[in-house]
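> call design_seq(struct)
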């Protein structure tokens, strides 16, 4: 075969190979359309099962409008990278919805109709020094009946809750009715006439906030059943609840209900515990609360006889006649370190103030998932509640305080199939004989399914059928402090031209609203947990920096020790001189100083060498990565093509 023919054959082979590659891409796009494989380490592009179930239950179409200032962020790669993450997750949800969700990406240019529309949706525009224009990166969602839900601005530091926020917005649009919350309270949260002051007391600020977001219904303390349309119980300071109320709560949770429970070993926010006619100056009585019958069934350990005291988080108050400041070990200022940053309730909170709080622990045999939300620091201990009943000087708590080094759980989330506190049936009337278990109607499979879905089929008469075991997954949040809800712990109410203005100095209200909001969603939404970040740092580079910093610190410490030795040597030389009052240095002292100066220069060279070595290691690693990313794939492709041509030419010769 001639040289020209060989060249023609090689060129033809390359053309055919290119055409075959294009054809393979077209065919694969058609055959594997919609097929995706998530190869990321943390499954960033795989939706959680909870999100999939929420999307599956959508009945009416939903429109999602992602407003992102694409042009204005050309020089802000960090925002563009996160916006791309948001868009990809929205597209994944749109694909999962199968046509029930429509996603549009809009660039709201300055002074455009799109920017006006973003402002109408109340999306947040921010000013960044790197861009002269206002930047939008928010989401507006609408449904077929005109309801609107928004995420004003996607904050990159909340990326681990991105899927939860999107699932929550979609869930709110698919079920736009306000969640009904049943309140069972042993304190006057909703405002009431105070017989002690003979005045009307305003509602607590946290109660007013909850009313703006939920349909809060005051159920009282004596109930027999929970209405079907109530999806969440809010139980505060439950004192001496009758068995009928405990049974109603028990059956509600066994059906898969949700509850937010606040108990307290000593609730200072409960003035109703002070009996009328008690002499002035005497401590109030009966300020503790418990749900002992339910907690015992759940194997949840809690007692009103113990208080968590924390020297590391104690708040400072004014005490005594002189109003001198003193740290109160029972008043705790929880910081972000003591809160669960991986739960949507406590993530992003800075400070939550507690007043004389208790603690929880659980038995592993309970079968319930126990997730701490708020804990003490390790500089804490347990103190008997009796020491707080009459405490004129909080400084007395510090005299014999001995931290145990243990972190005590003050608030936690419980989830699972809760056991019943009434396995033998509902309680009988207070003064009547209880009905024997054999006289109660049994539940068939259909009735059990109805109970699990929230319906309460009645037996003969109006009484609901008894559940001896859970028919649905329950979700309960328990908090061992009631004072967390009172205004004095987190908010200052001021009168501004006749209007009540609340200025929050702690995140107590946000904690409560987050808890109600989390529980008010479906179990599918609760299943959407926080996810790992899409940002993948160079762990090898981080390790190199840590090693270099260790060497740097070691060398620096050696320099400091030599400096101290030199100062000590100079002091010895000065004290040994006969003319110790002479400020002029001797030749020996000057030589010692010169020696140290020379040695300091040598050590500084060592420090610079350590830093240069770190830079060289990072540059070498970067060069290797660039070589692999840039050169390896073309090299493999070239080898593959050459091997194919070699085999073809070899066959032609034979």
């Amino acid at each position: 075969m001639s040289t020209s023919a060989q060249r023609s054959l090689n060129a033809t082979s390359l053309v055919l190979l290119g055409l075959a590659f294009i054809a393979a891409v077209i065919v694969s796009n058609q055959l594997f359309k919609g097929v995706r494989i998530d190869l990321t380490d943390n499954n960033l592009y795989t939706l959680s099962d909870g999100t999939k179930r929420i999307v599956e239950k959508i009945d009416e179409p939903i429109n999602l409008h992602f407003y992102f200032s694409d042009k204005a962020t050309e020089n802000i790669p960090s925002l563009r990278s996160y916006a791309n993450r948001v868009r990809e997750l929205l597209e994944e949800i749109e694909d999962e919805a199968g046509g029930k969700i429509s996603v549009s990406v809009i660039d709201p240019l300055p002074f455009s109709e799109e920017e006006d529309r973003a402002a109408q949706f109340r999306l947040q525009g921010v000013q960044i020094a790197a861009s002269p224009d206002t930047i939008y990166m928010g989401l507006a969602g609408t449904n077929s009946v005109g309801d609107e839900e928004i995420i004003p601005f996607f904050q990159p530091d909340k990326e681990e809750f991105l899927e939860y926020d999107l699932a929550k917005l979609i869930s709110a649009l698919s079920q736009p009715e306000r969640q009904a919350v049943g309140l069972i309270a042993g304190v006057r949260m909703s405002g009431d006439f105070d017989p002690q002051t003979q005045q009307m007391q305003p509602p607590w600020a946290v109660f007013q906030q909850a009313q703006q977001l939920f349909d809060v219904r005051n159920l009282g303390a004596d109930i027999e059943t929970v209405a079907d349309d109530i999806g969440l119980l809010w139980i505060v300071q439950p004192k001496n609840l009758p068995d009928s109320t405990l049974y109603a709560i028990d059956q509600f949770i066994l059906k898969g209900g949700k509850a937010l429970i606040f108990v307290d070993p000593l609730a200072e926010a409960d003035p109703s515990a002070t009996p009328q006619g008690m002499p002035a100056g005497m401590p109030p009585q009966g300020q503790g609360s418990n749900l002992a019958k339910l907690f015992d069934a759940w194997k949840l350990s809690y007692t009103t006889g113990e208080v968590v005291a924390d020297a590391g988080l104690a708040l400072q108050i004014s005490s005594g006649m002189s109003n001198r400041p003193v740290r109160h070990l029972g008043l705790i200022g929880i910081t972000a370190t003591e809160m669960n940053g991986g739960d949507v309730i406590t993530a992003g909170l800075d400070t939550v103030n507690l007043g004389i709080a208790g603690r929880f622990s659980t038995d592993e045999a309970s079968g319930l998932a126990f997730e701490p939300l708020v804990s003490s620091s390790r500089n804490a201990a347990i103190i008997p509640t009796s020491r707080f009943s009459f405490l004129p000087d909080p400084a007395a708590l510090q005299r014999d305080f001995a931290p145990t080094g243990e972190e005590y759980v003050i608030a936690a989330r419980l989830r699972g199939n809760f056991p019943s506190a009434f396995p033998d049936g509902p309680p009988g009337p207070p003064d009547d004989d209880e009905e024997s278990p054999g006289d109660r109607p049994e539940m068939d499979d259909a009735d059990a399914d109805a109970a699990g879905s929230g319906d309460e089929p009645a037996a003969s008469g109006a009484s609901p059928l008894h559940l001896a075991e859970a028919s649905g997954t329950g979700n309960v949040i328990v908090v061992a402090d009631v004072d967390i809800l009172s205004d004095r712990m987190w908010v200052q109410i001021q009168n501004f031209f006749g209007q009540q203005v609340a200025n929050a100095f702690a995140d107590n209200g946000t904690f409560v609203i987050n808890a109600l909001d989390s529980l008010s969603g479906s179990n599918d939404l609760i299943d959407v947990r926080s996810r790992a970040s899409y940002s993948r740092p160079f762990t090898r580079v981080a390790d190199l920096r840590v090693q270099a910093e260790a060497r740097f610190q070691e060398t620096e410490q050696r320099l400091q020790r030599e400096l101290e030795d030199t100062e000590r040597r100079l002091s010895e030389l000065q004290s040994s001189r006969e003319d110790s009052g002479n400020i002029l240095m001797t030749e020996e002292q000057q030589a010692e100083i010169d020696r140290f100066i020379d040695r300091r220069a040598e050590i500084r060279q060592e420090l610079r060498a350590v830093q240069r070595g770190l830079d060289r290691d990072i540059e070498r690693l970067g060069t290797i990565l660039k070589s692999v990313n840039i050169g390896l794939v073309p090299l493999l492709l070239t080898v593959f093509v050459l091997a194919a041509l070699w085999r073809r030419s070899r066959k032609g010769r034979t």
